[in-house]
Amino acid sequence: MTSANHRWRRFKNGLMQSVTLTCAILVIAPLVLVFSHLITSGIGAVNWDFFTKLPKPVGETGGGMANAIVGTVVLLGIASLVGVPVGVLGGVYLSEYSFSRLNVWIRFAADVLNGVPSIIWGMVVYALVVLPMKGFSAWAGGIVLGMMMIPLITRTTEEVLQLVPNGYREAALALGIAQWRTIIQIVVRTALKGIATGVLLSLARVAGETAPLLFTALGNSNWNRNLSDPITALPLQIFSYAISPYDDWHRQAWAGALVLLLLITFINVGVRVLTRDRFQQSTR
Amino acid sequence: MSLTMTTGEETNSPAARPEPGSVPVRAGAPTARDAAAAPRTAVPALAIWRLSVYFGANQVLKKVSLEIEARAVTAIIGPSGCGKSTFLRSINRMHELVPEARMEGEIRLFGQDIYSRQVEPVVVRRRVGMVFQKSNPFPTMSIADNVTVGLRLNGVRTRSVMAALWDEVKDRLNAPAISLSGGQQQRLCIARALAVQPEVLLMDEPASALDPLATAKIEDLILELKKDFTIVIVTHNMQQAARISDFTAFLYLGELVEFDVTRKIFTSPARKQTEDYVTGRFG
User: Fold this and answer.
1) Chain B residues close to A169, C-beta within 8 Å
2) Complex prediction ipTM
């Protein structure tokens, strides 16, 4: 082996290393760019009023997005009522009754539904809920987000339940514990953090949805006092402010985007905390 | 090691057991009786008659018949894949967890057909407990909760439970069960199985993953337990079978080759195949 050969190999090694490093930086660059841009553009409009005041009419400066922040929380609450029970129980069926021939199709359907564009979800719920109720409503907005959560939660629940060692199921069944109790008290309890992680991730995913809410929740420049009336949410408010011609509304749209991104980041941090605990437990 | 159990309620009342006369006597079924080991009960704990188990098209057990004496240790030995575990799991109907499993023949637990249409697997499993090769305490529960789980989830209130490793864990009953050592975890699993007061305890290679010291403790425990329970143990370790069992069954390729008192199996077996296996010439 000559030293020239050696140098050439070292050069190739260094070259490839820097290429992969560049690509790795490109992966996180958008996140850094988005965060820095949102902070510089939005931080100026984030103040106490932003969190406590209603939007001001056109032409008046000031006001806030209190109704949109509460609206997002309300919509996510309704979505959880719809999505969590159906999604978790569906995942339990897929994992714990895995001999069913139906499962291949359920899994396939869930994967396809995960890829359905969100605006199509909005149109479906417009036809199923908005038209029969004769109006846009918080219910319709919550239902569409909940329906979008179902396939996500189902698949993650199934996956984390599959990670529960079979020995626990056998131990419980061998004690004469009925299967439904085994599933709830042993299997689901063991995987609870993983299931919670899946729920949080699905919430983070739908919290930023705008298109389906245009067809269902519609938006509201005032407080929603009845869930059968239209409601606004952060993404909706950002959308309507961003396409407006007013500079003050643009500033508030930036602030809303920053708050929304922070909300989703907090959910993701919560997910990290949950999963870190789970790994610690498994390695103990 | 002391073994004392106090539970809020007696789960298996002796009155529920069938009368001794109700067991049919089968011609041709090998019995474990001989002068050296006089039977202490009239009814065998388990009467297994022409048991065949299939997984799909694969026949794992072939017309196995034997009677297992109450309050004694019966060891099942044989090379890997001979159907030992399947035999054990068919006694508490755990093999039914495999969807394509089916069985033929008959198993009577103190005279009662456990595969009869009226008997639910859940009820069989409360009367026939099981300990697995790999200790599997529930990771979300404390030591105390692990022991009482079988009672709690079967709807029995527990006031206090003292278990097989009481002396070692009494100061940390609320510690997570997975903080125990491997041998302690396995004894916890035995305590958990015993807390529901089964009549028979099945053990599937309970010490094969443990060091010699922990294994010795498990073996001591088994000898202690046979005063109150009928024990069927599958083991790869022939010295272990010789040390702790009263009767030994040798299975090979799904068939029962020989079943006799343990001393006879290891000193003067009737079949050459058995002798070759226990002397280590094959298997």
Assistant:
1) 97
2) 0.80
